[in-house]
Amino acid sequence: MPDSSAVHFTNAFDIRSVGCSGDPTMFEAFWRETGDAAELVIPGWQTMSYFSDVGNVCWFMEPLFDQQVRRLHRTVGNAAVDGYHVLVGTGSTQLFMAALYALSPADADQPTSVVSTAPYYSSYPAVTDFLRSGLFRWAGDANSFVGDSYIELVCSPNNPDGAIRDAVLSSGAGKAVHDLAYYWPQYTPITRRADHDIMLFTVSKSTGHAGTRIGWALVKDREVARRMTKFVELNTIGVSKDSQLRAAKVLGAVSDGYDVGGGGASRHRLFDFGRRKMVERWRMLREAAAASGAFSLPAETSGQCNFANETAANNPAFAWLRCDREDVEDCAGFLRGHKILTRSGNQFGADPRYVRVSMLDRDDAYDIFISRLASLK
Ligand SMILES: Cc1ncc(COP(=O)(O)O)c(C=O)c1O
C-alpha cells in the first residue's frame, strides 16, 4: 500500500475509532450471521408507483411495513399499537419534524416553544431551528420553561445520558412527543407498554439499519396523524418503498427470532446479541474509567424486564462521561488531544466537563477507545 493511503487509512480509522456520531455499526456482526433471513430482491417493475395504500391515512406506507411494525411491538411489549395509526418516515428525524408541524397551531401569534429536559439530544435544537419556522421555535430546557403552550420532547432512555424520563410539563395546552428510539431490550429493561399520544421509533437504533433511513410514529389521534402525513407529503412526497420493504424484512427477521408460538423461533436473536454486547461494553467501560481514575459515569440502574422475564440493567447506547480532573474544563478538547473524538456536553445544553461517547461502534474501534481511555490519568 502506498504511503499516502496508509496515512489516509490511519486518519479515517482514528475518526471511526471514537464514534462520536452514534453510527450503530456494532449490529453488523449480528446481521452477517443471519444468512438470507433479512435479504431482499426487488424486481425492476416493483415499487414504482408513488402510492402504497390509498385507503390509509399514511397513503405512502407499505402495508407489509405497517404489519411488521405492529408485530414487533407486540412481540417486545414496549409500545401499544392497538388503536394507533402507524406512520412511516425517512428516519424518525423526518417524523420529529412532522410532529412539530402537526402540533403547532397555524393561527398562533407566536411560534410554539419546543423544549426538552437538559441534557437533550443535540439534534432537537438544530432540527427545530434550521429553517427558522414561524410555527415553532427552540426554547431550551423544559425545566426552566414558563408558559402554557409548548411541545415537550421526551427522550427515554435519553440521548445523551441514558436516563429514563417522563414529561416534566403538564399544561392542558401543552403537547408531548415521546422519542423512544432506545426503548428496546438491548438498551434497557422493558418495564411497561408505552402508550403516549405520539411515539417515535427508528430502525437506526432498534436493528442498527441507520442507512436504510426508516423510522415510524405511533399516533393516537387521527387528525394529528393526518397532519404529520401531510408534512411528509410536502417534504418528500412519501418515503422510499424500497427502504420500507427492506425495513419490513429486517423487522420480520427480528420477530421471527422470538416467534416461539409460531414454531419459527430461529437461533438469530437480535436482542440477545445486543444485550450481551452492551453488558460487555459497559463492563469494559466502567473498568477503563476506574483504571484511569479521571472519569466518572452515571450510576448503573436496573429493573424487571417484561420481555426477557428477568432483572436487567440499563445499558445506554451512549456513555455520558464526566472528566473529574480539576484542570480540565473542556472534556471533549482534552480527549481530542488523546485521539478520542466525542461530542461536548455543551451541545446537549450541559456542562462541557461532560462528553457523549457512542457505545455502538464496531468491536475494533470500541476496543481502541477503551484502551486509550484506560491509559489517561
Ligand atoms: C433520540 C434519537 N432520536 C432520533 C434519532 C435519529 O433517528 P433516525 O436515524 O431514524 O433519523 C437519533 C439518532 O441518533 C436519536 O438518538
Automatic annotation (TrEMBL):
Q: Which residues form the Alliinase C-terminal domain?
A: 21-376
The entry's family comment says: Belongs to the alliinase family.
| Listed GO biological process terms | amino acid metabolic process
Cofactor(s) the protein requires to work: pyridoxal 5'-phosphate
**Record-linked InterPro entries:** Alliinase_C (IPR006948), Alliinase_N_sf (IPR037029), Ethylene_sulfur-biosynth (IPR050478), PyrdxlP-dep_Trfase (IPR015424), PyrdxlP-dep_Trfase_major (IPR015421), PyrdxlP-dep_Trfase_small (IPR015422)
- Give the UniProt keywords, A-Z: Pyridoxal phosphate
What is the protein named? Answer: Alliinase C-terminal domain-containing protein
Q: Which GO MF terms does the UniProt record name?
A: carbon-sulfur lyase activity; transaminase activity
Per its UniProt record, what Pfam families does this chain match?
A: Alliinase_C (PF04864)
Species the sequence originates in = Aegilops tauschii subsp. strangulata (Goatgrass)
